[in-house]
Amino acid sequence: MKIQELNISLNQQNYLEAIYELCVTHGHAHTKMIAESMGVRMASVTEALRSLSAKELINYEVRKTITLTKHGEDVARELAKRHKIISDFLHQILGCSMQRADEAACRIEHVIDEKLKDRFAEFVQFLKKESEQGEDLIGKFQKSYQDMLERQNG
Known about the structure:
Arc Repressor Mutant, subunit A, 2 strands, two-stranded antiparallel sheet, 71% helix, 7 helices, mainly alpha, 2 domains
């Protein structure tokens, strides 16, 4: 599935992810829950819900629970997968804090194409496998980076 070809805006992708997370956690979402999780006004949520419903990505009726359609769930799951791959790379490999990795992944995941996402995932798996087999490439990189930072600051 190529998200870029679905004509879903960055904002709509963010709403889909929020709804997905709420559905995973609570089984459904409500406008207020979405507004609180995203830090936006309920009026903004309502507008986004209408557009996502028109694209048949969510099941939405005013004052009712909100769920994802099968297609919406597939798209949201793919977005969540991209987010995790990028966040893991930034945190586990590059050594960014979890918060910084999560925030950066949130921005990157919406513009990265499928092939590059797959390369990120394969690279992370390669490094983890090599590290498990005794060649701690991740540790070597992180030490090298820390040494460079100390040289710059000291």
